[in-house]
Each structure stands twice: as structure tokens, then as C-alpha cells.
Protein: GNAT family N-acetyltransferase
Organism: Methylobacterium terricola
Amino acid sequence: MSQSTMRLQSFDLASQDVASVDVEWLHGLSLGVEWPHRPSDWDLLRSVGHGFVALDEIGRVFSSAMWFPYGADCATIGMVITSPRVQTHGGGRWMMEGILRQCGERRLILNATRAAYSLYVSLGFEPQATVYQCQGYARPVVAQGDAVETIAADGLAAVAALDAAAFGADRSALLARLAPVSEIRGLRRGGRLVGYAMRRPFGRGSVIGPVVAASEEEAVQLVTALLDGQDGQFVRLDTRQAGGALRAVLHAAGLPLHDTVTTMTRGAPLPKVEPGSPGVYALAAHALS
Ligand SMILES: CC(C)(COP(=O)(O)OP(=O)(O)OC[C@H]1O[C@@H](n2cnc3c(N)ncnc32)[C@H](O)[C@@H]1OP(=O)(O)O)[C@@H](O)C(=O)NCCC(=O)NCCS
């Protein structure tokens, strides 16, 4: 056949609850934009969040967007994806507008890729910080914290209280969901929990996060404790530390910088990370902040 072109008719998309579709559709959608999520990662996110997908007339999923409530007045937004075939036709904006209606008056946090940045600016989000996605096959590191302890399920209330002090909102429901699939380490001073870190299966291997500590030094102690025994395994950690001891340890441990995203908020600024008070040194996930 000689070379020729034709224009296919466009089609309509309808929105539906993200909980209602087969996880394989979601997995295909995230693979299509080269995200590492496994079906089990989507299932975990669907168990703690809400959102919807856009489907065509025969049930194919072309778009997704989710939000994750933390207490009554805060939420994060994530898993905003439009299939490359239908990008730049207004789908992302339509999905985001639906999510914003569901979130109501909550203050909002999200982590923007370059492709999504201008969309979020136009919806009232303001940049707060760069997130450094560090990952790779772990090399042996010297554990730097003799005092690091393992935290069991019955220690979760103290973890949630510490997390709220650092994050600025109640993430106890999320932490209760992460705990059964996570290794959890903690640091105590005067009997009081002052730092915690989690590691769980994610994407190509595992992710270390959240990490909350009162100083970068203590964050390093927690992270090296969770890197212990991971030699040769693929590990990821997302931090807002632009440099310093944590980034140096990650680099030495085989987790160099891979990519960056921008944390943006609407309604309130992101809590600062300052030595002496609880701060977030690693994200739970891009979608969960
Ligand atoms: C970001 C993404 C969801 C946008 O979806 P979309 O359906 O193309 O979005 P829309 O067509 O509604 O476009 C929204 C705005 O972003 C702009 N935009 C879309 N793609 C862009 C790109 N690659 N770079 C810069 N701007 C872009 C559009 O011009 C549009 O602006 P306008 O409304 O002022 O004209 C989509 O590109 C995507 O899935 N990317 C890969 C995954 C990703 O990065 N997700 C975001 C996670 S934070």
C-alpha cells in the first residue's frame, strides 16, 4: 500500500472510582509513563486514598488521579497520569479539577514532575522544595547508630505522634497501613521516641520512608540501620535534603541522585526541617509526601 494517512475519530472518556477497576489497568497506565509501581503498590495506595480514572467506552483506562486524606484538613494528591497517547488534550486538568472538588477546603501537598508543574501552578499550587529521588543497588554501609531499635506494631502510637509533629498533619491511618509491610526502626532519647524510619517493598525493590528525625545525624543513623543487609538490592529514598550527610551516605551506599520533583502546596507552606525539632528526612512516597 502506498503511504497515506487517516485521522481517527476522537472518543469520549468517562470518570469512574479508582477503586472499581482491575489493578492491571492501573499498572499498565503507570508503566506507560515509566513509573515503577507494581500492582501491589497501587493496591496499597487505593487502600489509603480516593480518586478516579477516566475510561473509554470499552473500559480502557486512559487517566488517573488520587488524593490521600490526613486528618480532617490536609491531603496529598498523587498518581496523576494521562496515557501518553492522549496527553495535552485537557485530560490532566479535568482530572485535577475533579480531585480538587473532592478535597474541598483541605490544605494540599503534592510532588510535581516537570510535565505537571505548570498545570499545578495554574491551579493555585506554590513551589516549596525540591525532592531528590536517590536510588540504586545498595552497597554495604557502616551502620552508624548503635542506639537504633526495632519498633513493633505496639509502638505505632508514638510513631504517629512523632510523625504528626514533623509532617504537620495526622498520618496515623497511613502509618497503620504501612506498618505491617514495613521494617520499622526508632531512636529514643530519655526514653522518648525522637526518630523513626520505615522500609517496605516498592517498585523495583524497596523504599526507605518515611524518615522522621530531630537532626540529620539521627536521620543517617536510622537510614543506615535500614540499609544494613540490603547489599545488592534495589533501594530508593526520596529526600528534600539538598546536600549534607544524608545525601553523602546515600551516594556512598550506591543510591545516587536519579531525578527530582518539586513539592508544591496550596493553603499552607510545607513545615521546615530544622535541627532540634522533628523533621521529615524522607518521603513515604511521591503520592503520600
Ligand atoms: C502531567 C500529565 C498528567 C498532564 O496530563 P495531560 O492530560 O497532558 O494534561 P492537560 O492536557 O490537561 O494539560 C494541562 C496543562 O499542562 C500543560 N502540559 C501538558 N503536558 C506538558 C508537558 N509535557 N510539559 C509542559 N506542560 C505540559 C498543557 O499545555 C496544559 O496547559 P494549558 O491548560 O494551560 O494549555 C501528563 O503529562 C502525564 O501523565 N505525565 C507523565 C506522568 C506525570 O508526570 N504525572 C504528574 C505527576 S505530578
Observations:
- The mean pLDDT is 96.
